Amino acid sequence: MPCVDNKDLIYNIKELQETFSITSGDLLVVETEEGTNIMDYDNLIIGLDNTTFGTTITNNTADISALSATVDTLSNASQAVLAAAGDLGTTEESGFAADTVLLSENGYQVLPTGLIMQWGVSERTAARQEDEIITFPLAFPTACLNITGMPDRTTFLGGNLCVYLKEFTATTATFVYDSDNVTWADTAIRWQAFGY
């Protein structure tokens, strides 16, 4: 005898007659030696063995085969990814070796792509209305592409102080201080450069 739960019919398979019909969305209660299970009709094929009045429940083999193939594909793909990751090797083999970085106030990082990032702070002096030349910690093998700089003061004395980039090469950059005072004591240029 079926019962209704949330507008879906639930059948106890032991109570079914030899001929019965169920539709998509119905649930089946199946009692086995392991216990009672409720199964969704959409994923089962039910057949009754008329000679022994036993019940045979078979999973939809087409869906299981497709799912099994998908699992195999994902397993093979994940093994390929893990193998590729293993091929990357150590940090040094990936382009981030100890000789590709200088982590200090004036330092650099060479990326595996060949791009070089450099940074630093010039020597603290009295800022004057003249050139301040900075030498990069690592010469760019090909060219410096871009550089920026700004004044770095430990105290504020009032007035205006600017830094302008005059020129740069693969090894140096020349900045010019500009201010409304003749000198600014204890001033440096904090800079960043990119090249390859």
Task: Please identify the oligomeric state.
Answer: single chain
Instruction: Supply the helix-strand structural class.
Output: mainly beta
Largest sheet: 6 strands, antiparallel
Number of strand elements = 15
Name a few traits of the molecule.
single chain; 196 residues; mainly beta; Immunoglobulin-like; 2 domains; six-stranded antiparallel β-sheet; four-stranded mixed β-sheet; 1 helix
Give a verbal description of the structure:
The protein has 196 residues and is mainly beta. It has two domains: 1-87, no CATH class; 98-195, Immunoglobulin-like. The protein contains one helix and 15 strands, in the order E-E-E-E-E-E-H-E-E-E-E-E-E-E-E-E. It has one helix spanning 61-87, and strands at residues 3-5, 8-12, 27-32, 35-40, 44-49, 54-59, 101-102, 107-110, 116-121, 125-127, 131-135, 144-153, 161-168, 172-179, 184-195. Strands 7, 8, 9, 10, 12 and 15 form a six-stranded antiparallel sheet that branches. A four-stranded mixed sheet has the order 1-2-3-4, with no helix packed on it. A hairpin with a 2-residue loop joins strand 3 and strand 4 (35-40).
Q: How do the helices and strands line up, and which of them pair or pack?
A:
Blueprint lengths: L2 E3 L2 E5 L14 E6 L2 E6 L3 E6 L4 E6 L1 H27 L13 E2 L4 E4 L5 E6 L3 E3 L3 E5 L8 E10 L7 E8 L3 E8 L4 E12 L1
Parallel strand pairs: 2-3
Antiparallel strand pairs: 1-2, 3-4, 5-6, 7-8, 8-9, 9-15, 10-15, 11-14, 12-15, 13-14
Summarize the entry for a quick read.
This protein is mostly beta strands.
